[in-house]
Design goal:
disordered N terminus, nine-stranded mixed sheet
Length: 197
């Protein structure tokens, strides 16, 4: 409730903001400084409405705060947790959904390498193969629940995915090198659930 009231007051102050002072406008018009430099020196209440929008667009989103047992993935700004219970991919996915989560996705190389580092440096995360949210869907590797998002940019282990065994249509993170591998979906592995806040 507090945050909604606070945001409303902030939005109201933007709408009622005073224009730039004549001296500040002349500094911009003479090109001696950029608009951003001038804006940075203006008290908050004096920022004109249009300029505050430009300033806000360039800000990073606020970091999600994660509490144990979750840890924050800085590359997706989500909270993930390792579940040390063996389940099939489908059962793991259902368990995550039952808790308002999804099997974790690592959609960028940076995010995948971050997971590798977490597994290498945290003893609880080192053991076992781990399910993630990747699955073979409609002839492509996709992040489940995000059918437009493909696993094209993630670091598969050497020679993977290989589909050499029928049913290797679910993605997991290997214990041996912490890279992606395709597994039979009915294999039982640990898994990682993810939530956005």
């Amino acid at each position: 409730m507090f945050s909604i009231v606070a945001l409303s007051l902030i939005a109201l102050s933007f709408c009622m903001a005073e224009p730039l002072h004549q001296e500040q406008e002349s500094r911009i018009n003479s090109h001696s400084v950029s608009r951003r430099e001038v804006i940075g020196s203006i008290p908050f209440r004096e920022l004109p409405y249009g300029d505050i929008c430009d300033v806000c667009k360039n800000r990073e989103p606020a970091a999600v705060e994660c509490t144990a047992p979750y840890i924050r993935n800085p590359h997706s700004n989500t909270c993930i947790r390792l579940v040390n219970t063996y389940k099939t991919w489908e059962d793991a996915n259902n368990d995550c959904h039952a808790n308002g989560e999804n099997l974790a996705t690592f959609e960028t190389l940076e995010s995948c390498f971050w997971l590798t580092n977490v597994r290498k440096t945290n003893s609880d995360w080192r053991k076992g193969e781990i399910w993630i949210g990747g699955k073979w869907i409609d002839g492509r590797w996709r992040w489940a629940g995000k059918t437009d998002s493909l696993l094209d940019t993630v670091p598969w282990a050497n020679g993977q995915p290989d589909h050499h065994v029928t049913g290797e249509e679910c993605a997991g993170n290997r214990e041996s090198d912490y890279l992606l591998n395709d597994f039979q979906c009915n294999s039982i592995l640990y898994y990682i659930c993810e939530k956005s806040s």
